[in-house]
Each structure stands twice: as structure tokens, then as C-alpha cells.
UniProtKB/TrEMBL annotation:
GO molecular function: beta-glucosidase activity
Keywords on record: Glycosidase, Hydrolase, Membrane, Transmembrane, Transmembrane helix
Gene Ontology BP terms: carbohydrate metabolic process
PANTHER family: BETA-GLUCOSIDASE 18-LIKE ISOFORM X1, GLYCOSYL HYDROLASE
Protein's recorded name: Beta-glucosidase 18
Homology family: Belongs to the glycosyl hydrolase 1 family.
Residues passing through the membrane, by range: 25-45
A Pfam family annotated for this UniProt entry: Glyco_hydro_1
Signal peptide: none
Lineage: Eukaryota, Viridiplantae, Streptophyta, Embryophyta, Tracheophyta
Length: 517
């Protein structure tokens, strides 16, 4: 009898649980529909662009990006050591990528996980190799193309302690050794390689503004313990470019043939537009472009720094020997473009600039910045809607602008938009409101990209930054670019509404728009 009563109670409990589950699922579904409807209402008629998968060429990759240090490890509270424990949850993350219908996943290899110490020890950590092997195999099994960034900001501390990291030419051979280790183990399956993520931005935030470790700078850029903001960024980039060239040569000679892979680099690629119609400001906008993305890409396509830089810089701009120019010329198969925003540019050669209104305008009147003051405001009005990142504004036309610039300057070399994403201002407590904005952001940026493609730009893929909220460098966990949220207690992955749009767009070939039909 007792047994019977407890069985009935048990049945009742599980029915109740099921009912609750159903209510929860219905509620999630209804709330997502409401958000989509709400977002439709928010967009003005002019902004209602329907963007479809078929607006992009056949075989165009749609993917999401992460980097090792930002997602990999386990929580401790203060650094990327927290991150999202991707190291243990990568299978779940791959299932997520698959369920969204994404066809590519861009991730980086943690240098110290694979090579915990310097080249001279020849120590390869097999556990690290196994981890990346498993990621690659499981992606391929699900038809997802791995895009591997070899270096995305993190290297073993020993390289910093022994010779000062990228400020030393010794770093070039260390990088080549790391790259070769990656090629040796993974080039039989990985087809898309990027050597270094954003050398230009890394040099700026590390050696010019002193915001990233080892935090080196000099006034007026900041007050660091040591550094030289006018010179060190140039040296660091020079070493990164040569490291890239050497790794690419090795790849092409020994590994490319394995799966006929391709190799490129990713650069931070802001779009700049003149603050006024004056000729000087128009020239300043061109200079800003040359001192930013072209600083990286001219050497890798044409074999030397941009003429715009050489015109002003003297001996502080390192020079390439003729063998080095040969090594670098044509050393990319594609350009990876990380594009987040557009800024106004104002000339500081012929007119006076106020250069201390934010950490990013300090030093605008210096040569290292190309004597260009960049700002997101004109007459008190922002260039686009502000986001969580002070220098990123929502300016969708900038996507078409930067892609066209690349197309013209580099004779339409193949491109991938390797990062584009939205971080909400505030803490995303009001998830729905932020979700609508994120949906809107990707919709409009994709539409602008589609326009560039229609005009003939050879763009072959688009990657959302980021698959999930993660460790946003000096902003910690406050800025959230992810299309998945991470529950801080459980580290569970929770889809934001944008995920439903991605799914509809990719799997059901529905337009990426905010109307529910
Ligand atoms: C970097 C990412 C970063 C993102 C957003 C890019 O410059 O590659 O690591 O999280 O911008 O700030």
C-alpha cells in the first residue's frame, strides 16, 4: 500500500515537473516571438532591410569567433583564468555551433598550452595537442570548417621575462617554432590559417597606450613604468610581420599541400571618414586608414610599409632588407578583417587638436598616430549609436566602406570578415532590450556587407564576435559581445534571442529580419 502511495506521488511529481518544463519552453518561445515583434516595431521603415543567405555567394562561410585566452579556462575571478571553461565544455560548444547552422568556427591555439616553455626545450604538451585535435575532428565531423588563429594575444610568460616578447627579434623564431608545431599536428585537416590576430591593435594597446600587459608607454599616451610610445609599437609590429612572413614561407613549402590550405592574417580594420569637408581632414582620413590596417597589409601584399607612413616617418620606422621584402611580398592568401566601427578623422598637421578628451585621443598630434585625431562625435552628435565600447559606434555603412577600401587597395584579394560584433552598454540586465539591438546590429552590418559583395568585393565569410560572452581583456567580464550568455554560477550557455535569428537565417533560409511571418 505504502509502495502504491509513493508510486502515485512520484507519478504526480514527474507530471508536475513535465508541466513546468512545458510552461518554461512555451514561455521561452513566446518571449522570443515577442522580442522579434518588438524589434520590428523599433526599426523604422527605412531600417527594415531583409537580408537573406542567398544575398551571399554559394559556399560563403557564416561562423563565430573566439580566442583561447578569452574562453578557455576555469573560473577564479580576476582574469582569463575564469573564462568559460571551454577547455572542458568544448563538445557542448561545438554542438551549439552545429545547432545554429554555422558553417565555420574561428578559434585560436593557446601557445602555452601547446608549448609551455621556450623553443630550446623542445617540449610539446601532448594534452594540448589532443585537445585541439579533438576540437578539429569534431568540427569536421559536423561539417564545420575550422579557421585557426595561431596567435591571439597570449604567449608564455617566459618569452616576456627572457627577452621582452615582441620587442625582440628573438620572438620571430619562437613564433615560427610555435606555428610549425601547429602545422605539424593540424595542417592535415585545417584548411584556413591566420598567423596573428591584429598586430596593429596589439601594438597600440600594449606598447603605445600601455593598457595591456606588459603595459609599456610614455607621455602623453600614459604614465607607465617604462616604454616609448613613439617607437616601440613600430618595433613590435616589425617583428610580428617578419614572424608572419617566415611562418608562411614554411607553411607553403612544407604543409600547404596536405589539404591545399590557405594562410592569411587578421587586422583591426576601423573605417575612417573625414570630420569636415576640408581637404586636410579628407587626407587625414586616408592617413588614418594607412596608419591602421595598411600598416599591416601593405608589407604583406607589396613588400613594404605604406607610402603614407614612409613619407612622414624617419629612421624610427624600421626598414626591410631586400630579402625581407621578398619574404613578405604576397605572403597572404586572404585578408582577415576585424571590423567593429567607424570614426571621424581630423587633421592635426595644419590645425590644432585637443588630444586629451579620452584615453584613445591622447597623442593624436603625434607621428605614431599619423597626426590624426579620431573621434566618434561631431558637434556633440555621435557618428552612430554608442555601444559598450567607447570607441565602437553602430555605423553599418562602415562595413561596406572598409571592404571597398581593401578591395581597391589590394586588387580585390580574397577577404573574410573574421570579427564583427556588438557589446551592449550597461550590464545587460535588461537582456531583451540589448538583444534587439544586437539583432539589429548584425542585420544592418550583414546588409552593408552584402552590398559590398554585390559590387564585386571578393568576401568569402562573416564571423560573429563572439560565440559567447567572454573575458573582454581590460574590460574584464563587463562587456558582452556573445550571442550566448554564460551563467556566472553554473557556466551554462544560454542562447540570446539573436541565436534564433541566426538559426532561421542559416537553416531555414528565412530572411534575417525582425518580422515574424
Ligand atoms: C579582438 C578580440 C576582442 C574584440 C572586442 C578584437 O579586437 O580580436 O579579442 O574581444 O576585438 O573588443
Amino acid at each position: 500500500m505504502e509502495k502504491h502511495v509513493s508510486a502515485v506521488a512520484e507519478r504526480g511529481r514527474s507530471q508536475k515537473q513535465k508541466r513546468m518544463e512545458n510552461i518554461k519552453i512555451t514561455w521561452v518561445f513566446v518571449s522570443h516571438c515577442l522580442i522579434l515583434l518588438l524589434s520590428a516595431a523599433i526599426l523604422s521603415a527605412e531600417e527594415q532591410v531583409d537580408i537573406r543567405r542567398s544575398d551571399f555567394p554559394h559556399g560563403f562561410f557564416f561562423g563565430a569567433s573566439t580566442s583561447a585566452y578569452q574562453v578557455c579556462n576555469i573560473a577564479d575571478g580576476t582574469s582569463g583564468d575564469i573564462a568559460n571553461d571551454h577547455y572542458h565544455r568544448y563538445m557542448e560548444d561545438i554542438e551549439i555551433i552545429h545547432s545554429l547552422g554555422l558553417t565555420a568556427y574561428r578559434f585560436s591555439i593557446s601557445w602555452s598550452r601547446v608549448l609551455p616553455s621556450m623553443r630550446e626545450t623542445w617540449w610539446v604538451n601532448q594534452a594540448g595537442i589532443n585537445f585541439y585535435n579533438s576540437i578539429i575532428d569534431n568540427l569536421l565531423l559536423r561539417g564545420i570548417q575550422p579557421f585557426v588563429t595561431i596567435f591571439h594575444n597570449d604567449y608564455p610568460q617566459e618569452l616576456e621575462d627572457r627577452f621582452g616578447g615582441w620587442l625582440s627579434s628573438l620572438m620571430q623564431e619562437e613564433f615560427v617554432h610555435f606555428a610549425e608545431t601547429c602545422f605539424k599536428h593540424f595542417a592535415d585537416r585545417v584548411k584556413y590559417w591566420m598567423t596573428i590576430n591584429e598586430p596593429n591593435l596589439l601594438a597600440e594597446v600594449t606598447y603605445e597606450r600601455g593598457l595591456f600587459p606588459p603595459a609599456r608607454c610614455s607621455p602623453p599616451f600614459g604614465h607607465c613604468a617604462s616604454g616609448n610610445s613613439d617607437v616601440e609599437p613600430l618595433i613590435a609590429v616589425h617583428n610580428m610581420l617578419l614572424a608572419h612572413g617566415k611562418a608562411v614561407k614554411l607553411y607553403r613549402e612544407q604543409y600547404k599541400s596536405k589539404v591545399n590550405g590557405v594562410i592569411g592574417i587578421t587586422v583591426c580594420a576601423y573605417m575612417y571618414t573625414a570630420l569636415t569637408d576640408f581637404k586636410d581632414d579628407k587626407e587625414a582620413a586616408n592617413r588614418a586608414l594607412a596608419f591602421n590596417a595598411a600598416w599591416m597589409l601593405d608589407p604583406l601584399v607589396f613588400g613594404d610599409y605604406p607610402p603614407e607612413m614612409k613619407r612622414y616617418h624617419g629612421s624610427e620606422l624600421p626598414s626591410f632588407s631586400s630579402e625581407e621584402r621578398e619574404l613578405l611580398r604576397d605572403s597572404i592568401d586572404f585578408m582577415g578583417i576585424n571590423h567593429y566601427g567607424t570614426l571621424y578623422a581630423k587633421d592635426c598637421i595644419h590645425s590644432h587638436c585637443i588630444c586629451n578628451d579620452s584615453v584613445y585621443t591622447l597623442g593624436s598630434d603625434r607621428l605614431i598616430r599619423g597626426f590624426v585625431y579620431t573621434t566618434g562625435e561631431r558637434n556633440g552628435f555621435p557618428i552612430g549609436e554608442p555601444t559598450g565600447m567607447s570607441q565602437f559606434f553602430v555605423v553599418p555603412r562602415g562595413m561596406e566602406g572598409i571592404v571597398n577600401y581593401m578591395k581597391e587597395r589590394y586588387h580585390n584579394k580574397p577577404m573574410f570578415v573574421t570579427e564583427n560584433g556588438y557589446s551592449s552598454p550597461g550590464n545587460e540586465d535588461d537582456i531583451y532590450q540589448h538583444d534587439v539591438k544586437r539583432i539589429h546590429y548584425h542585420q544592418l552590418y550583414l546588409a552593408s556587407l552584402a552590398q559590398a559583395v554585390r559590387n564585386g568585393a571578393d568576401v568569402r565569410g562573416y564571423f560573429i564576435w563572439s560565440l559567447m560572452d567572454n573575458f573582454e581583456w581590460s574590460s574584464g567580464y563587463a562587456l558582452k559581445f556573445g550571442i550566448y550568455r554564460i551563467d556566472p554560477q553554473t557556466l551554462n550557455r544560454i542562447p540570446k534571442t539573436v541565436c534564433y535569428l541566426v538559426q532561421r537565417f542559416l537553416e531555414q533560409f528565412q530572411p534575417w529580419c525582425c518580422r515574424i511571418v
